[in-house]
Amino acid sequence: MTESRRRKIPWRAILPPLVTASIFLLIFRKVPFARFTGALQDADYVRFFTALIPFSVFYFILDSVVLWRVVRWFHGELALADLLPVRAVDYLLSILNHRVSQGAMVVYLARRLPASLLEIASSVLFLDFLQKTHLILWAAVGMALVSETLPATLVLVPLGLAAIWAIFLSYVHGGFAFLGRTLRAPDWRLFRTFRLASRSRYAQVLLLKAPLLLGAVFAHYHATRAFGFEIPMPRLLATLPIIFMVGSLPINVARLGTTPLAWIFFHGDVVDPPKLLAYSLAGHLTFMLANAALGLAFLPRAYRELFSESGAESESNAA
Questions:
Q1: How far apart are CA 226 and CA 229, in angstroms?
Q2: Parallel, antiparallel, or unpaired for β 181-183 and 176-178?
Q3: Tally of domains in the chain
Q4: Of 165, 68, 50, 161, which is closest to residue 112 (Cα–Cα)?
Q5: Nearest Cα to Cα of residue 91 among 105, 80, 78, 81
Q6: Predicted model pTM
Q7: Residue 45 burial (CB count, 10 A)
């Protein structure tokens, strides 16, 4: 009986809240709570929101354009206006579960395009992998420019990424020799977009995404001043991509634990930790709530288009 009960414990549901609570306990052992709340009270929120709210809208529009271009390249014509609702709802659902939001997007696109669920999923994974690549490449640029001392191990991140991409692309495009055997990817539709994409397509996606990170650096550079401190742009360029990646790890609730922990880890030596904690939480919640507002605005239309036609339930289950 004891073993069967242990097996039924929903660790995937329990672990993120436990990790989030543990991180905040760790943070507030070092950061006085009164100074944290004082930093929140003293902030200039007009300046803060003026920097971050326009960036949230800009991010949504350009991110939708990148998705639209990839869909047109690999699956056929689709109007940008038809992508905005599902992209907005993707932002809303990703607050709770990133994979569920991606699944909803796959179902939506598969119903509007002459492509299978796995072929659409291939393009969604293609964008997801390139998003991480885009962040690490900019982090490498920032590390080359920044003059402040950063952890030396950060240099290993772009090197590791380059090795992973070299192995994966060799695996997908013809295979590679390993221990006397040729390892080659099976002809799965889940690899379709990776196989079809030329080098120029990979580069075009990275270039299209570049303004997203540069816009984030610019927005955070000005928003931090609302909390009474300033982080140089080169340092932000080196650390923000890693902060975003650490925040996206599926081990905490709505990225509320790992995001402020990463801010403090990278900038706690040059910024007063209570102010840094207050800013990181306020910035993350602002971006998250702005995305949720966009998702709620488009939710009725997205719901109609996802579930109004026959067969929606079976397709959703398949995804």
A1: 8
A2: antiparallel
A3: 1
A4: 68
A5: 105
A6: 0.82
A7: 12
Q: Which two tokens stand for residue 131?
A: 């998003």
Non-local (6+) Cβ contacts of 59 within 8 A are 212, 215, 216
Q: Which residues contact 33 (CB under 8 A, 6 or more apart)?
A: none
What dihedral angle (degrees, nearest 10) is formed by the CA atoms of 82, 245, 208, 166?
A: -110
Whether 120 and 75 have beta carbons less than 8 Å apart is answered as yes
Please give the structure tokens belonging to residue 179.
Answer: 């221990």
> Which of 281, 257, 280, 288 shows the shortest CA–CA distance to 18?
257
Domain that holds residue 45: 2-318
Indicate left, alpha or beta for 309 from its phi (over 0: left) and psi (-120 to 50: alpha): beta
The tens digit of pLDDT for each residue in 31-58 reads 889 999 999 999 999 999 999 999 999 9
